[in-house]
Design goal:
By secondary structure, the protein is of the alpha/beta class. The chain folds into two domains: 2-176 and 350-361, Glycogen Phosphorylase B (Rossmann fold); 194-339, Rossmann fold (3-Layer(aba) Sandwich), CATH 3.40.50. It has helices at residues 9-24, 44-49, 66-84, 96-106, 135-146, 155-163, 177-192, 195-198, 214-217, 220-237, 247-256, 271-279, 289-298, 312-317, 327-338, 353-361, and strands spanning 2-6, 29-33, 57-58, 88-92, 119-123, 149-152, 171-173, 207-210, 241-244, 263-266, 283-286, 302-304, 320-322. Helix 1 (9-24) packs across helix 7 and helix 1 packs across helix 16. The protein is globular and about 65 Å long. Bound molecules: uridine-diphosphate-N-acetylglucosamine and uridine-5'-diphosphate. Residues 8-10, 36-39, 42-43, 63, 94-96, 135-136, 212, 247-248, 251 line the site of uridine-diphosphate-N-acetylglucosamine.
Length: 363
């Protein structure tokens, strides 16, 4: 029996191929939702659109400081694990949900042999930005070092793990489940919706912007500089900046009292709507991990508004440029990526990662 732990938008999306694979293969599993994300458009919409079963448990932790959120999730998960006694717990990515799920499971002894704890499987293991000031880097390093199964999306991720002394027999290069999710849902999205014209846009006639990293949006000067660079790109090209605004960013824009120019600000979109918008964008400008991957998979050039990335495969492929956060460097990165031919190869696998992961833990 497996426990699948998730709590945020990207975890729901990237765990969906694993849940589907369990269903197809009749593998016994249950889902714990931590409630780290809880607004309809950050949570429920994905269960509905992706046809996922309702979580078996919801901890409803909500938004808190890092330590409080992590502690509450650990306490809630421990109780469930003691009762349900899963053999393996799967976590995905680098959020506080992952950190707390990994810590709770790896210290929870529920087997008759009391020296054995619950095995953790870390989906999307081995990513490194090498920037420990990012909360996500701390979370992923801890999760990797405590996990029994490390599902690395790429060879590069596997090498990071080996270099940190993690035993090779624990590491499996599977591809990233985001490829499975994109392949499964893009065709469906095209059949069902026309998000681009619904927003009054034309294919290749707009830029897609997403921003939510704590270090980018919680500091006024940094956020103002990024927005200034983006506005300049709008002014010099005449193309709108379509901006589905993450709730953290919405809160910070309001609290700083910022006025945005050149942006078409919209609520966060469901995955099907977002995939459509992303696949027809002229360029994606983002600080999201998942958007860097998806833009690469969809052959949409990407500018990453950060100084480091844990997805260097996208940069090496020629699909992504690491711009930093200064207005001038964002502008020149956009110029550079607008001129780039879209002929790169997707480095994140063949869309079978979900099945591969389930075959490893449930042979
Ligand atoms: C979290 C993850 C980040 C991930 C992102 C995906 C951590 C440390 N951060 O960041 O790695 O990239 O999710 O989107 O785990 N809020 C709402 N409704 C919600 C959720 C959040 O209004 O459903 C608002 C709250 O004001 C909250 C803020 O967003 O304080 C931040 O939420 P939080 O989950 O702490 O961090 P994210 O920025 O979402
Ligand atoms: N996404 C979405 N609607 C939006 C913005 C993003 O469905 O309005 C999806 C996107 O397709 C990707 C994931 O959310 O799969 C990325 O999540 P996010 O940027 O919040 O987190 P990160 O990947 O940086 O952890």
């Amino acid at each position: 029996m497996f426990a699948i732990i998730l709590g945020t938008r990207p975890e729901i999306i990237k765990m969906s191929p694993i849940i589907r694979s369990c269903q197809r293969k009749n593998v016994d599993f249950f889902v714990i939702h931590t409630g780290q994300h809880y607004s309809y458009e950050m949570d429920q919409v994905f269960f509905e659109e992706l046809g996922l079963p309702a979580p078996d448990f919801n901890l409803d932790v909500g938004s808190k400081s890092h330590a409080e959120q992590t502690g509450l999730i650990m306490t809630g998960i421990e109780k469930i694990l003691i009762k349900e006694k899963p053999d393996v717990v799967l976590v995905q990515g680098d959020t506080n949900t992952v950190l707390a799920g990994t810590l709770a499971a790896s210290k929870c002894s529920v087997h008759t042999d009391s020296s054995r704890t619950i095995d953790v499987g870390h989906v999307e293991a081995g990513l490194r930005s090498f920037d420990r000031s990012m909360p996500e880097e701390v979370n992923r390093v801890v999760a990797d070092h405590l996990s029994r199964y490390l599902f690395a999306p790429t060879e590069n991720a596997r090498e990071h793990l080996c270099r940190e002394g993690i035993s090779e027999e624990k590491i499996f290069v599977t591809g990233n489940t985001i490829v499975d999710a994109v392949f499964e849902n893009l065709a469906l999205a095209k059949k069902r919706l026309d998000t681009v014209s619904g927003l009054g846009l034309s294919p290749n006639g707009y830029f897609l912007v997403t921003l939510h990293r704590q270090e980018n949006v919680d500091a006024r000067k940094r956020l103002e500089g990024i927005l200034e660079g983006l506005t300049h790109i709008h002014e010099s090209t005449g193309m709108p900046l379509v901006f589905p605004v993450h709730p953290r960013t919405e809160k910070m824009i309001a609290s700083f009292g910022l006025e945005l120019e050149g942006f078409q600000m919209i609520k966060p979109l469901g995955f099907l709507e977002f995939l459509q918008l992303e696949s027809q964008a002229r360029l994606a400008l983002t600080d999201s991990g998942g958007v860097q991957e998806e833009a690469c998979i969809l052959h949409v050039p990407c500018v990453t508004i950060r100084s480091s990335t844990e997805r260097p495969e996208t940069v090496d492929a020629g699909a992504n440029f690491l711009a930093g956060v200064d207005p001038a460097s964002i502008i020149s990165a956009a110029d550079r990526m607008l001129a780039r031919p879209r002929s790169w190869k997707n480095p994140f696998g063949d869309g079978m990662a979900g099945d591969r992961i389930i075959d490893i833990i449930a042979p």
